[in-house]
Every structure is written in C-alpha cells, then in structure tokens.
Design goal:
single chain; mainly alpha; about 500 residues; 7 strands; three-stranded antiparallel sheet
C-alpha cells in the first residue's frame, strides 16, 4: 500500500502535466500565420535576436512570408524585452518560419505554470488530491490554454507570477520554521529577520515578471503587504502588545522591502541588457548615458499606456474578467464546406465550470478569512487564515489594480490569465474541503468549512465533487476546437456561443 501511494505521488502530477502538454502542444503550428498581437511580439522577438533590440519590419503581412524582412531601423516597443527574448528561444530551436518557433516557448511556459501551481497547491494543503486538482483545473482552463498557445506576453507573465507566489509562500514557511525554533522574548517573538533567501529569490522573479510586462510589479507589492500584515498578526499572537507589535512589524516591513525591492530592480534592469549594449536601439543617444535614455524611454512608454484609448471590438472592462464575459477573439477564418460554412477560430472562451467555480471558491475563501478574523481564536487557526488570505492576495493582485486604476478603454479579457493559477487553487482548496480534506500547512492543520460530518453526507459531497470534475473535463473537450483553431461547422461554432459577449 505504501509503495502504491509513493508511486501515485509522482504518477498523478505527471499525468496532469501530460494533459497540460497535449492540450498546449497539439497542432501548435496551426494556423501558420500570425494571430492577434503575435504580429508585434513575434516580429520584435526575431529582430531583437538579430540586433539586440527590436527593429522595424518592411511589411505588416500576418502570413509572415519572409521571416527576415526586418530592417536596421530601431522600433518603438511598448513593453519590456524579456517576453520577446523568451519567444526568441523557440525561434532559435524551431526556426522563424513556423508556428512551433513562435509558440513553443509560451506553450512550455504554460505546462511549467501547471507544474508550479501543483507544487504550490501541495505546499498550501499537504494534499496530493488538492494539488493535482488545482493543476488539472488550470490545465483545462480555456483562458490559460489559449494564452499559452499564442505568442503573446501574458502566458509568460502568468508563469513568472505563479513562480513568484511559490517563492513567497516558501518564505512564509521558512519564517514559520525559524519562529518555531526560536525562544520567545518577554513580549513575544519580535525579532526582525534579515536573512530571507526565499524572499530574495521572489524579488528577483517578480523583477523578471516586470521585465515581461509592468503589471508584474502588482503581485510583488500585494505580497509584501500580505507579509507585513501577517507579521503583525503573528507578533500579536505571540503576546506582544499592539504598540510593540506595530513598531516591530513596521521595522520588519522595512527590512522586507530592502531585501526584495533592490533584487526586483536588478532583475528588471538585467532584462534590458540587450537594449543597453545596442547603441542604435530606440531612444538611444550616443551623447546621453544609457540610464538617462532608459528613463526617458520609460516615460514615453508610461505615456503611451496611460493614454491608450483607441476603441476595440473586444475590449473588456476589468469588472467582467472574473466571469469571462468578453473573450478576446484571436483568430477566425470562414470558408464554404462542412455541409455549409466552416469556421476555424481561436478564442479564450472560459470553461464556465472552472472560471465561475473559481470565482465562487474565492468568495468562500474570503468568507473564511473574515470568519477567522472576527472570532476570538482566529490566530490559533493559522492555516485557514493564512492559506485563504495568500490565495486571495495572489488573485486580487492581478485584478484589483486594473479595476481601481484603469483609465483607458483598451483593456482585454486575456489579461486575466495571470489570475487563473490562483482561481484554480481556490477551487481545488474548496473542493478539497467539501471532500473532508483539512486545510493544512507543513506545521498545522485545521478544518475549513464546517460541514455535516456524517459519513453518508461526506460520501455524497465527494460524489458531487467527482461529478463536477468529470463535467469540467467534458466541457473542456467540447470547447477544445475553439481554443486550438480546429476546423468546425458553423452550427458547431454557434452552439458554443453560450453568452452574448462570446460572439
């Protein structure tokens, strides 16, 4: 029995990764033309490989007949370089004239994100069932599938954010281990800790995330706030008075920022090395130090992003992202055949069971956090409070900044791909609680949802969860042709337009 469990511990995650890989790499080279914003990012990636920084192309042909039609003239890119360097890795391996070259790196990033999500699920819950469920939900999430099959930047960003979150959670565990071994002082455990290797690594990763898209800084800021609040609560729980706990927590927050932020800045600047060593890159002036030129370039980029108001048929207000009400169609062609008209399209239409289920699960976790905080013994049930708050922080860090600060109309549903790992984790955690799996960490365990403990009731909930997961897999199979550009009859395509905004 122990041998079976040992093998299952490795086999189950590998099977989930295999599902993720098949869904993302199947027919990856189709279509053989650039789709949506691949027109910009793939071209930038190829010319950046040749020159160290993007250059202008001689045409705007999405069919991409000549993959070497770039010029020597510097091109104005409105996003940092790292995502395009990553696209370029696939181009180096498979060549610039095939969809495998353009998309293989982001597909691999998608599979890696599923693996990281499973690892984070395990560390949050110590449950193989919850970890593999989170990975399977992400592997079959329509938004994540599509955004890791097209050569855009957001699939890479989701990977970096998930990895940064994993490292942040390792920092939480690292501190818990040290606190457990430390002797409490007269006012509780109040030591300010400077040696934080996992936090340093997280800062580097989030800096790299910003080197893909600036929005990669939002999660870093959110998790730093999470760490500060958690530190304050732990000091109070250790017996420190509010005044002393607040002061020491403020000092610890400063130390945390000193560790993480310079690392993030260093990692971010490193992503610009190609531009820095390219004397004829956009905005470079031989008479001006590169740092001044880079600062001016960033001011131009910020101005562009803050004033982008061009209308777009697929723009979607951030308030609609959690429910996937307006997917961004990436590609669509029609021709006669299939007993009528044939359609081949790529659209990140959500699997409603996964997307809406994830939104509902996040509300459950929010309720658990509130319940833990308002009850007198809240701090003794650390796993419920800490795990739920951590997942909520990850999700809200990719959504609330857009919701609260958006000042332009040109924002899109596919930006929400960074939310999908946390939505999958939330849904897996809640489904695990329904199945009677306690919310646990490496050091403690506590029940989450207080449900009927009767064995018959528990068996019924487990059966319902199994039916839900089978239905989610079936829905993903049903929508797979619309995610992967497979040719289908028009009636089949129309039958999948379940909501008015999906057309």
């Amino acid at each position: 029995m122990l041998a079976v469990r040992h093998h299952l511990r490795w086999l189950a995650p590998l099977l989930v990764l295999a599902v993720a890989a098949v869904v993302r790499f199947w027919a990856l080279s189709s279509p053989g033309s650039l789709v949506f914003d691949e027109l910009y990012y793939v071209r930038d990636a190829i010319s950046q490989l040749a020159h160290g920084a993007p250059t202008v192309w001689s045409d705007d042909d999405a069919a991409f007949g000549d993959p070497a039609a770039f010029t020597d003239e510097a091109s104005y890119a409105v996003h940092p370089p790292l995502g395009k360097w990553l696209i370029g890795l696939g181009v180096l391996v498979f060549g610039p004239d095939t969809g495998w070259g353009w998309r293989s790196a982001v597909a691999l990033a998608g599979v890696a994100t599923v693996g990281i999500t499973m690892r984070l699920g395990w560390l949050l819950s110590r449950s193989l069932v919850i970890a593999c469920t989170a990975g399977l939900l992400l592997a079959l999430d329509g938004v994540h599938v599509v955004l890791t099959r097209v050569a855009l930047l957001d699939g890479f960003l989701a990977l970096a954010v998930a990895l940064g979150a994993l490292l942040m959670w390792r920092d939480v565990q690292w501190l818990e281990d040290r606190d457990a071994r430390a002797e409490p002082g007269p006012s509780g455990r109040t030591a300010v800790r400077w040696w934080r290797p996992w936090l340093l690594a997280a800062g580097l990763v989030f800096g790299a995330a910003a080197g893909i898209k600036w929005s990669g800084l939002y999660p870093l800021a959110a998790f730093l706030v999470f760490l500060a609040i958690r530190d304050l609560l732990r000091r109070r729980n250790a017996g420190a008075p509010w005044g002393a706990a607040s002061l020491r927590s403020l000092l610890q927050a400063g130390a945390t920022a000193i560790i993480a932020l310079p690392a993030a800045v260093l990692a971010y600047l490193t992503t610009w090395v190609g531009w820095i060593v390219t004397p004829d890159g956009w905005g470079r002036d031989p008479a001006t130090p590169w740092l001044s030129s880079l600062a001016r370039y960033h001011a131009e980029m910020l101005g562009w992003h803050s004033t982008l108001t061009a209308p777009h048929p697929y723009q979607a207000h951030p308030i609609t992202w959690p429910l996937g009400l307006r997917p961004t169609a990436m590609y669509e062609v029609r021709w006669d055949g299939c007993g009528g008209e044939c359609v081949a399209g790529i659209s990140p239409i959500p699997n409603l069971l996964i997307t809406w289920g994830g939104a509902a699960a996040l509300l459950v976790l929010a309720w658990l956090v509130v319940r833990a905080l308002v009850r007198p013994d809240a701090l003794s049930r650390g796993p419920v409070l800490t795990v739920s708050a951590f997942v909520l922080t990850g999700y809200l860090s990719g959504w609330l900044p857009w919701l609260l600060t958006v000042s332009r109309s040109a924002v899109f549903q596919f930006y929400a791909v960074v939310l999908t790992p946390f939505s999958a984790l939330a849904l897996a955690l809640v489904l695990g609680m329904l199945c009677g799996i306690p919310l646990a960490t490496a050091r403690a365990s506590a029940p989450g949802l207080r449900l009927d403990p009767d064995p018959a009731a528990l068996q019924g909930r487990r059966l319902a969860v199994a039916v839900f997961l089978i239905a989610a897999v079936a829905v993903s199979i049903l929508f797979a042709p619309l995610w992967t550009g497979g040719p289908v009859a028009e009636w089949f395509w129309n039958a999948h337009m379940w909501l008015p905004g999906w057309d």
